[in-house]
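# nightly structure sweep
# worker-07 picked up a monomer target from the shared queue
# config: single-sequence mode, recycle default, output format = structure tokens
# input follows
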Amino acid sequence: MTPIELKSYRKKLSAIHNISGDKKPLSQARFAQLMGCSKDYIRKMEQGKRKIPEDFEQRIKERFRLYMKSGIDLRAMIDYLRLSFFGTDYKTVIQRVLRMDLTEFETRPTGLYLFDCLSVRGNIWVFWHSKRTVTENVLVQFSGQGCREYEEVMREQQTDWRTWLYSIWKNQGKLEAGYTRVQCSRFDIALDELWGLETEEHFDLFELLEKQKAGLLEMDFKRFQNIGGCFLDDGYFRSEGLSLYFGSRKSPLFFNFYEKRFEIANREKISELEALTKYGIYNRYELRLANEKATQAVEAFILGDSPKRLGEIGVGLINAKLIVWDRLESDARIVDKRWAKLFRSMEELDFTVKPEKFSLDRSERWFLKQVAPTLKLLQEADRILGRDFVQEGIDNAELNDEQQNYIEWMGTSGGKIA
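# output follows
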């Protein structure tokens, strides 16, 4: 830990604000008091006049519950998965990738995701094109229930998610694999807070609403919503439970925390206690990852010398985006005890989305998927109406500097890399 990082903790752990609303750091004297050391000790470390002990940051984290040596076990599972396979066909994907019987699938027409055919086996959906396309792509989608169904298939095949996904990534481009590459566009993780005994303490999601009002919910999201209520059923009001939403559904990372026990109780028309006794799930914390973040999460799960456990990825992402605080007297704050037990026994984990350079291949895929159908419609409209809207639009379009440089490079090199 550097002196600057040490000083930043005084601000992070402060609950003091000035008149303009900006946070003021704890004084060195107050921070020293909370840490059980002298003000002079803190001052000299911040000034670089005294070496900061290797374990000092860990002591800070444990003192303020930013890290817990032992926490509460959460059950982690993959709750939604969407994979695209390129340079292949649906029969190859079903038989060689999923290793399932083609006769188990029912095929029907569809318009979803710009595909025209869908082969379905329960909640495992395989989208494909009836006509040959440039990308020759097939999309496999597992809903939450579809994930559970495929787990049964994997159990029969004596494999699991990590082994299966690793083999898919490892075999990209190999002739025997039957596809050229794979891409993950959706990867959801569900973390279940389990119920044991009525006397056990569980996290009350309504507390997050109170924390937010009190300024004790620190989050790296621009949007925070909540939905809850009740409905009349056979003359009695049943609670729908509280659902909390962090972020936008269209963003690469979206959280949904909700009282799973009420969802189960209403679905099966049983009481909350019966739902808890039967399924043992109190709250569910869902993380929805899309596009590049989804791919990064899968690769963190399956690749490297020490792949991360699914729960480690989920908890790490929550820790990077959310902290629930308690007041430590009037001027300082400490992580909420129950929240710390649930989530702070693992380190923060974040997946950054890097800006991509211009790619002709990616632009061509985007054109085929998003632009070509609309362009064809406009060209037909031009023919019928006797106008030239499409060509005029192309003539008036301007390339940005990166695109212009790419064109100049292609003109001189013929598109070949030296």
